[in-house]
Structures are given as C-alpha cells and as structure tokens.
C-alpha cells in the first residue's frame, strides 16, 4: 500500500497558507538558491501581449506588500509599464510544490534616496550592465555584450561607473492580489487573496484547483 505523506499544517488553513506564501517570497530577495530569487515578471506591451522575463528579486516585504526589482531605464518594460502599470509575477518552488502568482502595479523610480542606496549596494560587476551604450533589445549586426570595449571582460572600478547610474531604475511592485496553488497527492489546494485598500487588510478564499 502506498502511504500518502503527512500534510503540512497550512493544507486546510487559509491564514497559514498566506503566511507560508510570504515565508517563501521574502527570503527570495537574499537567498540565491531560492526559486523566489528569480521570478518571472510580466508586463503588457502596446499590442496587448503579455511580455515575460526572469528578474532578480531584490527586496520583498509582506507588511508593505512591495517587491523591488532593478532594471535598465532604457529597457522595453519601462515603456510598457508607463502605458499599463499592471504587473504579474510568477514563482514556482518545486521542493515545496507551490506556485505563486502575484498581481499588482508598478512604479518606476530613477532618482532619490532609495535608488541611490540600491545602486550603492549592488556589486560593481552587476552595475557594469548599465554601462551598455545602447538600450537593451536594440539590434546589432555583430554579436555583442553592448558594453564599451574598455570594460569588456573587466570588472569596473567604482569611479568608472558614474555615467551608468543614469540608466539604473528600480521597479517597485505593489501587490494587491496573490494566488496560491499547492500540489499534493491528497488533493491540491488553491487560494486567492485580495488586498482591500479601504479595510487595509487581505481577504482570502479557497478556489477549486
Ligand atoms: C537569471 C536571470 C536574471 C535576470 N535578472 C534581471 C534583472 O534583475 N533585471 C533585468 O532588468 N533583467 C534581468 N534579466 C534579463 C531579463 O530576463 C530580460 O532579458 C531583460 O530585462 C530585457 O527585458 P525587456 O526587453 O522585456 O525589458 C535576467 C535574466 C536572467 C536569465
């Protein structure tokens, strides 16, 4: 006879499921091995098509419902979000058997203390990308990193990154919906939580998986 593994305490508990979701998301910002470290972030382009890309999660906070990502201010997604600020974010933790879909809106920040701090806390190697001479996604006749020749294959010094700062942006994602799917042999569980701005609280309900 096959034995079904013990079920986790959140299995039939909406509040514990919600807590478990954020317990997976939040450490993703610092834990490189976490699947939440590199979620898929979706925007809607001018043609109404969903545009998906992997991004590194830099910060997540359940109290503010905010996630932080870094990107090049010249990238196509910046234009997408200026036209339509809705964002969807997808994570799948195969060990935990948990899929999370987050929904919300994006604001882009290129100036201010938070941007200065995020810029300063990134490695010089990570910041080198922002030295690219042309916008990400621009066509090239030759294979290219986009970087100027003088820094190709080198780690920049702090003082060489000055002009790159202008291309650096934070994407703040304010989460207002979260959907959860937990896979279990005993029967899957699906739930959705919605942020109620007037009540300043989340309300959740189970869904048929
Ligand atoms: C593992 C991984 C991590 C990435 N992290 C980021 C990131 O933090 N920020 C970013 O803008 N692009 C990141 N990218 C590149 C994006 O997936 C995408 O190619 C790029 O942002 C251009 O997207 P866009 O043309 O839709 O703007 C990452 C790609 C991979 C594979």
From TrEMBL:
Domain of life assignment: Bacteria
One term of GO molecular function: FMN binding
Boundaries of every Pyridoxamine 5'-phosphate oxidase N-terminal domain copy: 39-120
Any Pfam family: PNPOx_N
Name the UniProt record assigns to this protein: Flavin-binding protein
Species for this entry: Sphingorhabdus contaminans
